[in-house]
Amino acid sequence: MFYQPENGHGLPHNPFNAVVSPRPIGWISTRGSDGHDNLAPYSFFNAVAYEPPQVMFSSTSAKADRNGTKDSVAQIRETGVFAVNIVEYAARAAMNVTSGAYDKSVDEFAQANLAKAACETINCARVADAPATLECKVTQIVPLAGPTGFAVFGEVTGVHLRDDCIIDGKFDVAAFGMLARMGYQDYAVVRDVFTLKRPD
């Protein structure tokens, strides 16, 4: 099968997300200039550089109450900071709750019954029990092709690692079961890890 996206794929569901998978989930927490906290998962997320450490996520839809974008990007525009919380299998239901398109007045931490903790280097809340959190200062927000797409890049200024996730000196994603996004409504959990040594 071959298809050109502009002409449609002819399948019951769009296969694009299933082809580019699994994808890590950036559970993005933000705080608006009014002090209101927001939490939402984004599967267009990844690390992009080591020195300095940098990450990105992209938002590709909009809400009527946020002028062409979603709560996360709107609040990041106001404050210039965000936190990336890593999602474990045990938090899958709470993560799913926070994916709802709620009114901008809703605090998703409360909606999903999640404990908050303060970040250290930025004025933002984080998921207190997350296996890891990356505190980030925005470096750029890039408009994407399409009416509502924005890629947000940030430099990591602080890293929280949950103590029980450090095994033999390594951050062990299998120890807590890192959640990943597949296509459609599907997810995967990391449980099996193997090592390949590079030729050099």
Describe the structure in your own words.
The protein is mainly β and 200 residues long. It has a single domain (15-189), classed as Pnp Oxidase, Chain A, CATH 2.30.110. It is 14% helix and 36% strand. It has five helices and 14 strands. It has a seven-stranded antiparallel beta sheet, with helices on one face. A three-stranded antiparallel beta sheet has the order 1-13-14, with no helix packed on it. The N and C termini lie far apart (38 Å). The mean pLDDT is 95.
Helix-strand blueprint:
Elements (H helix, E strand, L loop, with lengths): L15 H4 L3 E2 L1 E6 L5 E6 L2 E5 L4 E6 L11 H9 L1 E6 L5 H6 L10 H4 L4 E3 L6 E3 L4 E12 L6 E12 L4 E2 L2 E2 L1 H4 L2 E3 L5 E3 L11
Antiparallel strand pairs: 1-13, 2-3, 2-6, 4-5, 5-10, 6-9, 7-8, 9-10, 11-12, 13-14
> Low-confidence runs (pLDDT<50, min 5 residues)?
none
Shape descriptor: globular
- Supply the helix-strand structural class: mainly beta
C-alpha termini separation = 38 Å
**What name goes with the CATH superfamily?**
Electron Transport, Fmn-binding Protein, Chain A
Determine the CATH topology. Answer: Pnp Oxidase, Chain A
Beta-strand percentage range: 35-45%
How many distinct domains? 1
Q: Report the CATH C-level class.
A: Mainly Beta
Would you summarize the structure shown here?
It comes from Yoonia tamlensis. By secondary structure, this protein is mainly beta. It has one domain: Electron Transport, Fmn-binding Protein, Chain A (Pnp Oxidase, Chain A, Roll), CATH 2.30.110.10.
List descriptors:
200 residues, mainly beta, Pnp Oxidase, Chain A, 3-stranded antiparallel beta sheet, 5 helices, 14 strands, globular, Split_barrel_FMN-bd
